[in-house]
Every structure is written in C-alpha cells, then in structure tokens.
Fold these 2 entries.
Entry 1:
Amino acid sequence: MTTTRATTAPPGKWRRRLFAAGPYLLLAPGLLWLLYFFIWPAIQMFLMSISSGTLDNGFHVTGTLRPYTDALTKFATQWGNSLLYGAISTTLDFLIGFPVAYYIAFRGGRYKNVLLFLVIAPFFTSFLIRTISWQILLGDEGPILAFLKHTIGVMPVDFSILYSPIAVIAGLTYNFLPFMILPLYVALEKIDIRVLEAAGDLYASAWQTFRRVTFPLALPGVFAGTILTFIPTMGDYVNAELLGSPKTRMIGNVIQGRFLQSTDYPTASALSFVLMAGILVAVLIYARALGTEQLTG
Amino acid sequence: MDIERDLLKTDLTRRRFLQGTALAGVAAFLAACTSGTSESGAPASVSIPTPPPATPTPVPASPTPVPSPTGPLKFANWPAYIDLAGKAGEAQVYAPGSSPTIEQFKKKYGVAVDYEEKIQDNKTFYATVQPQFQAGSATGWDLIVITDWLAARVISKGWAEKIDHGTVPNAVNNLVDALKNQVWDTANDYHYPWQSGMTGIGFNTKVLKAAKIAEPKSLKDLFAIQSNKVSFLTESRDTFGLGLLKLGKSADPSSPTLADDLQAVHDDMKPLVEKGLIFADNSYLKNFAAKKTWAAMVWSGDLASSGTEGDTFQVPEEGVMIWTDNMVIPKGAVNKYTAELMVNFVYDPKIAAQVEDYVYYVCPVKGADLEIKKLDPGAESNPLIFPPADVQAKYHNFQFLSDDIEAKLDELYLDLTGG
C-alpha cells in the first residue's frame, strides 16, 4: 500500500514539501550569512575572551575571567564617556531630527523626495572624510571660531573646541543624524492626516494634538531612531579619535587600543562582549519602558 | 572625488606610512646607535634574540651554479616608500609601472615584480603573517619591510631566510657603518635597512613667530609650551624614548632601571595630558598649518617630504630617536634569490639616490649622497637625508625592547592616551 502510494503520489508530495520548505530556503542565504559572519565570530570572540596568552605564543582557552574583571574595572572613564556622549548625541539627534522628519512628512509636499535625498546625501562621502572635515570646521582658526573670535569678537582668542568633548559630541551628533531622521520620517509619514483632523474636530489644541496623537503614533519611529543612533554612538571610536583628546576617549578606543596597540585580544574581546551585552540589556529595558504594543503598532 | 582621494592619501596612507617607517627607523637607528657609540650597547639584562642557526635553505639559492631569478617577486612595503613617477608620484600611491626603480629591476633581471603597499602599521601587518609563521607555512611574500623591533622579533623566532652574502655584494659593501652590527642580527645575515628616520621636535617658524613663542631647542622647551598647543606621537617607542631623554634617563633598551624610568616618563607626561596634550601621527603637519599645534614630536621624513614653508625639524639638545625599516625575507619565500637580487639592487648608490630623491628619509646606502647630487643638487647636504656627524652622535635607538618592557610600555602608553 505504502509503496504504491509513494510511487503514485510523489509529484504532489514533493511539491508540497518544497512548498513547506520554501520560506526556509529563502531564508537560507541570510541565515548562512549570519551564521558565518556573526554567530561564528561571536563564538570565536567569546572563546578569545576567556583565553590567556600572547600574540607571539598563541592564545589558549583557559577559562580565565581576568579579561572580564579588567574590562569592568579598569576603564570607568571611557565607559562613562561612551554612555554620556552616546546619550547626549542621541538626545540632540532626536531634538534636531524630529522637526526635520515632521516637516518632510507633513509639509514636504512634492519636495519630499528631494528633502529625503538631502538627508542621505552626506553618505555619498566617506564617514572618515566627513569626520576629518569637522577638524577643519572646528579648528581654532576655522570658519566658525575665526568668525566668532575675530569678525564679531565675542569669544576669547585662545578659545578652542577641537579635541574637546564638545567636538566629539558634535561629530557623533552629525554623523548619526540620518539614522534618527529616517525612521522618524517613516513613522510620521504613515500617520493618517484624518486622525489629526479628528483631534482638531474634538477641540484639541495643536499642542494637545501633537502630544496625544502625533507623538504616540510616531513612537515606533522614536524607538527605532534612538536605537539606531545610540548603539553606534556608544561603540564609535572614530569621532573620539579624530576630534577628541586622551581625556575624551570612549570604550571603542579602548577596544581598538587593546586589539592593535597591546594585542591583548582577550581583554579586547571581553570589552566587546560587555558592550554588546550592556547594549542588549539597555535596549530591552527601553523597549519595556516604551511599551511593546506601541512599537509593533 | 579628488579631494577625497587626496584626503585619504594624506591622512591615512601617509600617516600610517610614517608611523610604520618611524617605528622601523627608530629600531634600526637604535641598533645602529648602540653598535656605533658603544660596544656595551647590549647590556646583559636584555635577552638578545639569537639568530637561529643558519639552516641551509631548501630554496633555489643553495646550488652554487648561478641560480636564475624567479618571479613574480612579492614585495610588501609601506605606502609612498619608493620612488614614484608621474601621476602616482603626485598621488603618493604606487601603481604598476609607476616606480622607475621597480621598472629598472624588472628590465635588468627579466622578472616580474608584484610590489604592494601592504604595510601601514607594523603590528597590523604582523598580525596578518604571524599565523603562517607560527604554522611554518609560507607567508606569500618574498620581501617585506619592517621596523627594527619587529625585524628583531621575526629574526629571533627563526622566521627569516638567511641572506646569501654572495648575492648581495652591494649591500655588504655599501651599508652605512652606523647601521651595522645590530645586536639582534650582528652580521646582517637576515636583514638590510631600507630607510631610517629621526624622531625629534618639529614646528613651523612662522606660526611660532605669530604666537610669540620661542623656538624650542630642547625637549625641556617643548614640554614647557602650553600643553594644548603641543602634540606627542602615537608611536609609543618614539614618545617614551624622547621622554626618557628629556628626564636625562638612559634611553638604552637594556638599561636595568628602564621599567621605573618609563613610569617616570609617564608621570612626567600625565599632567600635560590633563592640560590638553594630544597624541598625533603625522596629522601634526595639518595642525601646524591650522595653527592648532605650535610644536610637536615629529618624524624627520615628514617635514622633509611633505612639510610646508617654515616647517622645521629640530634635533633636540638632549638627543634624537633613530629608527630603521628593514628588508627581511620571510621564511619559506618562494623567490628568495630574486628577493636577494632586489636587496642588492637597491644598495646600488645610483638606485638608492633615485629612491631617496622621492622618499626623503635617512639613507642607509654609502655613496648615495654623491649620486643624489647629480639628480637633485643640494639634496646631498640635506641633513634630514644625510645627517651630519654631530647629529649622528646624538642618535638613540629605542626599538628593541624585551617582552616585559614592551608590555609595560603599552600599558603606560594606553593609560596616557586614554585608549
């Protein structure tokens, strides 16, 4: 019986099986990619983080926790800088980005695409070049300070921004601004304008409409935007390296220094892991605080 | 596009190149110095890597009947570290066919050369070849250019091919005396210098004049300048080496008190960092131009080749750091004989002069000054390419450090730089 069925049924059966497997087959390239370029390196990095040894003599997994105690105890200043600069620049990005996204979504009209293009346009130049340009912009005799110092004379001549925390935060805020604007735009753009009109019909003032209708509806965008901005700023080291001084180093600089300068791979790996875990926990708490249904909605 | 390319070139390639060369140079110079100035240069406390016993290499060179060159010669070097002509010369990036020296070599020996500007940083490059070395397999390179300390390490591990002196008579005869007899390879069995450089004080005379600051003649002067207008180097050996000289401590890598002295240097510099001192690679050139930096620790070749009007290299009264990048043939090199021919070729004073006239670092080849006179009159007396005897007398090589000292140095440096 079974054999007969097996011989007569194959086309339909196989087709059905293939059909059932379809989504997985389609997912396969992405999964393989993740497996090879994320999961596998992450495992390697974890093993490295519990290893001892030197580059010359090789590293061996010994289960030591020294890299983790080092990672957690030695770099308080840099962890603090990362958190502080990340938080400040994410907040600034939100304050700058929201009005921009709002304007494009509700007032952009036929210029929407042009405006969106302008938001993305800086990406056509390399990240490094844009950051180096800030060295020129913020230089002691650069266009901004020279104007404030000499042309209108409101600033002492030896005032300086470059290589200070302000410069690092400015660079971070600038470099990650589009990551804030785009998700906010997507969320705001989806809002049905009639909902806002309904609020008005129900005697809500403009501010009330914004606070009780527009902003809650934009929350998924706010969530995505802050995450997309905060995570890379936390881990960034280029801005602190090019625009900062030894006093403004962030945790990314420490990781870079351990990898490249002292080739202390275990500590560097442990630092990377702590950073990843810390961000994950922060994101979970944040998602909980904002309310998960809001985000999927 | 062009701006981007230029920026990238000057800010990344060039500085990395300089870092690397700086490192290499210091090491070589140190080695040269110790050998030149005192026989006791290598104190007993430092574990001197003994070159491995000269194993007869299984590579083509061994049979005495004249071997023939094989190719392509895989040659890894630092960016803008060989003479480049035309567009490549202006862009300071090698393109196949753009280096007269490489082209002449190819023509002379009828062999292909795959020259690549693959080394931007000693440690990063080392990380790419170390696993192969460790596994005993070939690195894929026939000739690499690495700084003293790394050359010493590679040689001490037995990861370099022994150079057949019979194939490199030019190098044997023309290597300057100051660079001979390095403690880590006394007979040049495994390395020959490519270029050297000095690390000292740099500033722009016009900028200093405008700021009404006296030109620093000594490291003490440099340390006394308002800290947020000064930069030290991102290369820890250079910065700490000069720091030792400033404190009047011995910058001899084998000094028994070195660990404490390095700590003293760190403690001496820490207050400057608090007051805004930064650590820079050759971005100090840009900072001079922007009046952001008044004076800095700098590499000589930078000011010679890329500096603008008024940029000055000052040999500090206390002494100057010297380092060398060295040609080394990695173990298992397929075209070892061709690599030796290349070593020999660039030690021809004519070729050396041709290279020097573009790269402007300190030349390790005797007689190149006479040859460069024909190419570029005046260059033969440029003290940055051919330093006079009184400058040579101030050389200190702080390159070849023991593992413990290096770990200590890394830790102190990272603490200072916040990384």
Entry 2:
Amino acid sequence: MTEATPTIPIWEVFIRSRNGLAHRHVGSLHAADAAMALQAARDIYTRRGEGLSIWVVPSAAIVASDPADRAMLFEPTADKIYRHPTFYEVPEEVGHM
Amino acid sequence: MYTQALNARETAPAQPEDADKLARFQARVDAEERIEPNDWMPAAYRRTLIRQISQHAHSEIVGMLPEGNWITRAPTLRRKAALLAKVQDEGGHGLYLYAAAETLGVSREELVDALLAGKAKYSSIFNYPTLTWADIGAIGWLVDGAAIMNQIPLCRCSYGPYARAMVRVCKEESFHQRQGYEIMLTLCRGTAEQKAMAQDALNRWWWPCLMMFGPPDGQSQHGDQSTAWKIKRFSNDELRQKFVDATVPQAHYLGLTLPDPALRFDEASGHWEYGAIDWDEFRQVLAGNGPCNRERLAARRKAHADGAWVREAALAHAAKRRAREAKQAA
Amino acid sequence: MATTSISVAETPLVLYALRRADDALILGHRLSEWIGRAPMLEEEMALANIGLDLIGQARALYAFAAEQEKAGHGEDHYAYLRDAPQYRNLLMAELPNGDFAHTIARQFLYAAFADPYWRAMMGCAEPTLAAIAAKAEKEIAYHLRHAADWLVRLGDGTDESQRRAQDAVDALWPYTGEMFEADESERMLIAEGRAVDPAAIRPAWEATVARVLAEATLTQPGGPWMQSGGRSGRHTEHLGHLLAEFQHLQRTYPGATW
C-alpha cells in the first residue's frame, strides 16, 4: 500500500430509534459517498430494529469542542441555579406549577 | 465527537510527559471518568489502546473464517440462517472496533495493512481448523463464552469509544453462545456418531480456549499499567478460572468429558482446578506455527487484494460525482 | 449409507412455491459464499443481510409448499433431500459468484424483476402467498437499490470496473429470459388470480434495467437467445456441486437431528 492511495472516508452515524425523539450517535463506518454511507449504516447499525431514521455525516464535517476548554465552556453554568425550577419556592396551596 | 482533524497523531512519543498532566489523567481514571477521543492522554495509553483494540478487531475479522467455513454446509436452514447471522455480527464487531481505534488517530487502512503484513496479532484461537459441524457448536459455546468473559468487564473500561463498542458487542454476543450450546445439546442428544462428534470437538477446542485468556499472570507483559489505566479489569488467571468454573458444569450437563485428567473440584475454594496448559503450543501458534495461521492470513490478503478494484471504483465514482456537481454549481 | 431423496407431489401451488423458494435459497446460498471475501467490511454486512433475507423468503415459501403438499415434508426435506433434477430454481441463481461485478449484476437483474413481481403478488388471490409477497417486496426493494447503486459505481467508476461490469452483464443476459417464463401449471394459477403472469412484469423490468445500465454507462446486451430449463429441473453443471456441499451432512448422517 503506497501513501498516495486515497482512503475511503469515514462517516459518523446517528440513529433515531422507535421510541426516541433525538438521533443518537452510534458509531462510524467507511463509505465512498453519501448514498453508500446511508445503506451501510442501515446494514450495520439497524439489524435489530433499532432505527426509524438515519443520519450520516462525514467525520471531517464535525466540529467538536476542545476538551481543554471544558472548564471555560461548561463550569460557569454550575452556579446559575436560578435557571432551574427548584430554585423557586411556590406554596403548595397554589398547586402544581 | 470524533473529529479526525483534532485527533493529533503522536509526533514525539519519546518525550517525557508533564508529571502534573499524568497525575490528573490518573485521577480521572481512578474516579471512573471516561476518557474521550480528544482528551489529553499519555502516549503509552494511546499506544496500548490502539494495540488492544486493533487486536480485538482483527480477531473478529479473522474469526469469521473458521465459522464461515461451515455456512455452505450447515445441516438445516435454521442453523444456516443462525450461523450466517452470527458470522455477520462478527464482521460488525470488527467494524465497531476499527471505528473505536480510529478515534485514537490511526486509520483502518493502516491497521489492516499491519494485519495483512503479518505484523499485527489476533487471538490465537482462530488459528485452529473447524473440522466438523460440532466445531461450530464448540466455538459458539466455548470461544464466544470466553470472549464474553473478557468483554463484559471491558464495557466499563476507561476509554469511552471502546467501552461503548463493547456494550454493543455484548448485546449482540448473547445469542452467539446460546446458538453454540444449543448445537452441542442437539448433537449430544442425537445419534452415537453425533455425540462422538461433539466429544471430539470439545477435546480439540478445550485447551486452545483456555489459552485464549493469555499467559499466566506472572508472565504477562502488559498487565500492571493496563490495570492501573482501567483498560484491563481482571487478570488473565482470574478470567480463565471464571470461565472454567462456568463451563465445566455445562459440559457435564451435555454428558461430555473434559480432556483434562487433572480436572477436579476443590471444595475448599469452590473452584474447578485444572491441569497444566501447554504454553509451548500457545507460543508456537502466536509465532505463526498454528494449524491455520498461514491460511487465515492468505484468505484475508486475497479478499483485500481481490477487492482493491472495487474500492477504487467506488472512490473514482465519488470523485466523478463531485466534479459533476461542482460543474453544475459553477 | 446416504439418505435417498424425497419424492414431491408437484401440484400447481406446490410447484409454484418450490420454484420461488429454490430461487431464493440458491441465491441466498451463493451470497453466503462471500463471507470472509467481500471487498470491504461494510459490504460483508450488506451481502449477508441480502442472503439472510433470501433464506428467510425460501423458508416461508417451503413452509407454504409443505402446507399444500400435505406429505409430512418440511423446509429441510425440500432443501436437503431433493437432488438437482428436482430443484426448480432459475439457472441464473446457481451460477458461481464470479467477481463482485458478476454478483452485483446478477442481484440487480434478479431484483429488478422480483421487486415489481412481489409487489404485484401482494394482490394475488392466495392469502399466504400475498403475505409472503408483502414481506419479500420490502426486502427486495432494498436489494434492488443496493445492487443498482453498486452497478452504477462499478460501471461508472474506473476503466477496470467498467470492463468487469460490462462482462458481467453480458454473461448474465442470456439467463434473464427465464424469469418471464410461465408453463401450463403456472398458467392455471395465473388464470385463477393466484399467481401473477411474469411476462406482465417485463415492461417494468426493461425500464429499470435500461435506466440503471445507462446511468452506469454500460451497454445493454442484445441477442434473443435465452437459456432455460431450471424451472423443469434441467440445470447447469454448477447446481450438482452446490448441492453436494450443501446437503453433505444430511445425506451422510441419515435421519439425524441437527
């Protein structure tokens, strides 16, 4: 195998299951183009009735947050508890809110 | 997400790593946090995982061959469909595992090239031949049984993509062992010839299956660090003992004897003690001198070579399509 | 001591079912031979899926044949205890796989027929067959898409893949006519609305084939001469070898349960 041989690109696969509402990432596969990627995803990741809808995305198209930024991106949310309903007191007599 | 662009390749593995970073990494592992693809990790951790995951993947792919050998001769349509589905699952497992390895900055092509060049290892067990239909039963019962022992703890390994692949594999694997045991049961309840077939298969597969768990704990190269990093959760001997304890009663239920005159139940420990394993055979098989090593690799090389024009065609077509779309957009 | 073959009372419905079951079984068996040999892992999965679908269709059709024959036969009797002259599959199904282009071209040519055929059979007057057809149609629709997409990529890929794809289509073409045959036995069922006239499927098949071959930049072969004989048990040399391997265990261990 020479270095110059083009490789078959990787696609990330997302499946929305029967009862689920959102597509979940289930893994990846190799395919030369989008049509083949969809079929491969169906053949590999839905053999046990797992899916109703498939998304395939070229791996290279995915932009991920940098783990090194984890603290900066996600920790500031921790002390903004006023975003959660439990922060607020509503008397029981008022009923469910 | 497993952005290939962010998965940095190891450029300077020989450089000493920041002691602070190493300590924080170990703390995360100790806290049972999952390590994900773009997280900082020691170079040795990455290397070990690539080695372990790719060996696992290679094993699944090579493992398709001994069982695939009997699909065209499966003796009933039900058995044929089950075996085809099982072997297909194994291909799928290889695929999930290559995908997990790729998150560590290595390509499936490189890993496969290493396998075909004889540079990569795969489980010794698949270098043995399937001589009768009973071998298919024995493989499902014993080999998949041993694999499950190894795989369930891996569902909690520290590296996220590997752990998640293992969860998927374990779900699918649960029918594999049952399929194999059911075959053995049918044979053992069948004609005298069939029962003899089953006993013969057990005689040939028992010791190689015990060897699957690897060398005794004292001799294993990679143990301690892998345990500290939670890539390996139980020792070879621990898993081997678990396997023996689970399997011996299953063999007795079938009315079969195990090819180990030293096998005895120790009341005090509650374990089945087994005889000495021929580690010479294990080393020979790993070195390439097992009954089928050459055939297995030759088969994989042929499949890969025969398929080259197909893969090239797929890429060529994709390129043509992109060019056409670009022209239309212009 | 080997087991002798069973005798089958081939009344029209039994014969009909065996023909389609044998098509599916032999094709499924051929596809299973690709395990461990496919051009890439993703295609191992795809070919195995297609094979499993076809074996499933065969089993359903054998079950129907058994119901109709009422001779105490089951799927395994039909599959393992009939010799080549008793098999009723299309010749195309038993041909060796050849290279990937040959396998894909065969799958395409067959599915391009079977898809509209099963869709039409969904409305037939025989309820069990209609139900089998409904399930089979969904499966075959996918096989057709998969095979067609691959044929396009091979035909319109590299020079080598185009050559191989064209060779495959040329070699298989003389075996396609057999799909449209219907003998006296089948004509009776057709008249009763219990089977569909395969000749009626020809326009749909021709349209699909023309469209896909064009997209694949392949030439449609000409020539009117069509191979035939499978429907009445006159097979190629290949089926004997296939069955010898397939049936070995049942023939060698008579009466055993597996």
